[in-house]
Design goal:
Rossmann fold; four-stranded antiparallel beta sheet; alpha/beta; about 500 residues; Peptidase_S8_subtilisin-like; Subtilase family protein; eight-stranded mixed beta sheet; serine-type endopeptidase activity; Alpha-Beta Plaits; 12 helices; about 25% helix; 22 strands; about 20% strand; disordered N terminus; globular
Amino acid sequence: MKKTFLYFLMVLLFMSSFNLSVLASSDAEVTEDGNPLFMVVFNSQNLPENVEEIVENAGGEITYQVPEVGVIEATSETPGEFMKALMTQKEVLSIGPSLEEQLDLPDFEVVESELPEEKAPVENIWEDGWQWDIEQVTNNGASHYLDREGREDVVVAVIDSGFDFDHPDLADFVDEEGSRTFVPGTTDSWDFNSHGTHVAGTIGAEGRMKGVAPGVTLRSYRVFGATGGASQVWITDAIISAADDGADVINMSLGGTRLRGQWFFTDPDTGEKIRGGNSAADIVAYNRAIRYAINKGVTVVSSAGNSAQDLSNPSKVADWQNSSRTDGWEAKGAVVFVPAQIPGVITVSATGGGFGTEDRLAFYSNYGNGAINLGAPGGDLGPANGESASKYLVLSAVPTYMDFTAGRGPEAKALFGPGYGWKGGTSMAAPQVSGAAAAYIAQQYEKTGVKPNPGQVQTHLQQTAVDTGKKGYDEYYGHGIVNSYNALAGNKR
C-alpha cells in the first residue's frame, strides 16, 4: 500500500512540472479570406478527367490534389451551395472539412534551479548512459552489432518537420537529395521545428549518441512548418510519395482525430445543416493512402497519441471532439485517432522509465484494447533522485542551428552543447519501433535477397517483444515492449 501511494504521489508531483498538451480535435482549415477548405473524396481512387470542371460548376476551386487516391482539397465563397452541388455528382463519395494536424507534445518545463553548473559538455552521450530508451530497446546496444550489413539499402521515410541534414550524428545516413517538402512556400526539407530531427536520431543516429538502427538510410518528407501545422492533404501526398519512392518503413509521429461516420456542415449564411456523405472524407483519404503504401510493401508505424484517451471507446472520443468544435462542422459517428487507428498501421504507446521499472505506461499515452500493437519508451520526468530531472525523457538529435530556450533546452545545452535535446511523447516511442523494423528488414534482405512484407514485419516484432503488464496482449502495451535485439536474434517468446 505504501509503495502504491508513493508512486501516485510522485506522479502528482511530476505532473505539477508537466504541461500535458492535449491533442484536441484536429482543426478545420480555412483560406486567408476565411472560406472553409473542404476535403473531397471521389468514388474512384483515380480522379475524374473532368474534376476541375466538376468543382468549378459547383462554385468551387481546387487548392490541392492527390490523384493516386482520388482526393482533392477545394474551397468556395458559397460553401453551403458548393457542398450541395457536389453531393449531387455521381462521382463524389463524400465531403468533409480539410483538417490540420499539430505537433502537440507534452511540454516539460525546466526551472532555473535544475540547470547544471557550466562545465565541459558530456562527450560520449551513449557510453555515459544518457539514453535509457535505446539501451532498453537494443539490450544495451547488443543489437547494434547484429547483422548490420546492408542497412543502407533500407529506407525509413520520416513524415515530419524535416531534418538537420548536417547534424554530425546523422549526416552520414540522411538522403537529402531524395527528401521532399510538401509545405507550400518551402523548397527543401530542412527542419525548423526540431521534431523531425529528434525522431530521425532515435531511428538511426550514430555518433555521440546512437539510435536503434544505426546505418539505415533516413529520408525526410516534410509536412510541418516551423509553427507545427500540417494539412491532411500534405500528409496524404507524403505517404503516397514515400511509397512511390521505394521507402521500406514510414514513421508517422503525428496524429489527430478523424470520423468514421458522417460530417454535417452548417451553412453560415442560411443556417442549413448539410450532410457530407455516408463515409467521412477524411477517414477514407487516410485509409486509401495507408493501404496504397502497404500494398507497395511499406511498413507504416504511428504514434498512439498523447491525450490519455482510451482508443477502444470511440463514442466517448466523439463527444469530446464535438464539445470543442466552433468551426461549423459536427461529427456523427465514431471519432478515432489517425493514423494510429487506420488498419494496417503498427500503433505504438509510450512508456516511461524510473520508479524501479521501465515498463509503465506514460500517463499522457493513449491506450486501448485492440488499438495498440506495441509499446516503446516515450519518456517522462520519472523520479529525479538527485539526478537530472530530464534523465527519463528521450534524448536525441535536434538541429544544431536552433537555439532552444524553452522546455528542457537550456539543461540539454548545458550538459551536451548544441545539437541534442530531450522530448517526451508517443512521438518518441514510434521511432523506436521504426528503427527495429528497419534493422529486421535489412537483416532479412541481406540473408534472403527478399524484404519481408509489412504483415511479416509486424508479426515478427510482436512475437519478439518483451511481454509487459498482463500476460499476453493487453490494452496498454499491446503485444509488449519492442526489442530490436530479440527481433534480430529471433528470440520469440
